[in-house]
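Researcher: Please generate the 3D structure of the following complex. Treat every line as part of one assembly.
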Amino acid sequence: MKRGNEILALEAIRPSLDVERLREDFPILRRKVGGKSLVYLDNAATTQKPRAVIETIRRYYATSNANVHRGVHTLSDRATRGYEEARVRVARFLNAREDREIVFVRGATEAINLVAQSFGRPRLRRGDEMLITVMEHHSNIVPWQMVCAATGAALKVVPVHGDGELDIVAYGERLSHRTRLVAVTHVSNALGTVNPIREMIGMAHGRNIPVLVDGAQAAPHVKVDVRELGCDFYAFSGHKVYGPTGIGVLYGKREHLEAMPPYQGGGDMILRVTIERTTYNEIPYKFEAGTPNIAGAIGLCAALGYLDGIGREAVAAHERELLDYATETVGKIPGVRLVGTAREKAGILSFVMEGVHPHDLGTVLDHEGVAIRTGHHCAMPLMDALGLPATARASFGMYNTRAEVDALVEGIWKAREVLL
Amino acid sequence: MSDLRSLYQEIIVDHNKHPRNFHRLPDANRAAEGDNPLCGDRLTVYVKMADGVIREIGFVGTGCAISKASASLMTESMAGKTEQEADALFERFHAMVVGSDRQIRSGLGKLEALAGVREFPVRVKCATLAWHTLRTALKTPGGTVSTE
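Model: Done. Output below.
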């Protein structure tokens, strides 16, 4: 009882987001689209960048640009330090045990490909099984199809219920003595479903099966603690957490990373090269062949610093409130059917409308300055499973407001007017 | 609103809601599937050719208002055309919607309703899906076309 009161008291004093003020940190939000104020509701595709990120990247190129891990000169040292500070920041963001468990990659897609090739491929044989879910983004399907095709392993798939929740019973049934690896998304990019990954990891680990979590859609919305989750790998993209494009993160447990062969060969991933043989660098550098995206990593560091400065809990609470409001107001529009109504959701409202194709809805909304995504959201197997060719998807970020949800609702009404 | 209406003219809304020739042709001798994976648009065009002339034409599938209305209007304008005439109409229609020739819209009749598409470049492939599909059907019976 006392504890309940304490929680209530904490809820009451938790500072809510000053959204109007933080909107000023995002220069793009001031622009107009076709004469209308931009209402950016496509955050699941990519988020906008705060001035802190834009300025950090500009300053890096203007004052510190050099290659990393090579030169003895001042700029190389500064670039290296900025790059490695970014790694420390990411490790803290995910609560990784060690900085060297953080590998910089281009994005979640490359992170998954790296694990597929360097971890999955060597351990999969004909007769083995690889387990994914039907709600995965193509980036967590195709790399495994490629590895299965190369090794003769079978790709098994966990289905979803009609409301967009994963069929956890089927998941348990599909974990077998043949399963060598599980790859699952933390949050569905098409529906917003938050999967019970902690429970899923526990079930897999009970059978000594390692788990990769695709966190591309979770990292901006959910507090991620890889040690608490116990996952073997966690992947996310910088550009979905208010950072730049072209930089992403693979977290891997040290013992896995150390045992894995390199993904690509080249500079920086070596200690010593002779024509006869090469000694690979230690982790994480073993996986970072070639000059990395230094500015990207430094920009990502600024983005995570910005996000943590605002407070991930406060952002999550604000987005939860927006999602609830949008669910209620959009759901009330005649002919609208919400797609994905799982109990646990984050940041995403997917829907279809009787008689209006999502693509036409997207065009009418764009005319009103409202940017949403329409289509299959790079999750065609999920769309097939739900029997839909496409949906309209509004996705929220820290800077969105209730007034913007109202603009979305008005735009949907306008689409009815134009098209029905 | 005015430029939205130039895209979604009454005739387009009407053909979207009540597409013409929206059925299979059991005795078709040409057919092709068209696919626009980005939008999830997918349609099949059926043609019955006799003596080098399109005697009957129909289509089925799902798609946005632009792709469906364009397919519907196309079937109306293609009946009775020879393969060469169909090709020529394809070229003129295509030039109109991509905006490469602003003069060309005259003489296209009801199809002129789709001229507004050129102000919406991302929608051009919606407007042309059925047309590319028909072209495939006429040239390679049983083919699939993608506008991606």
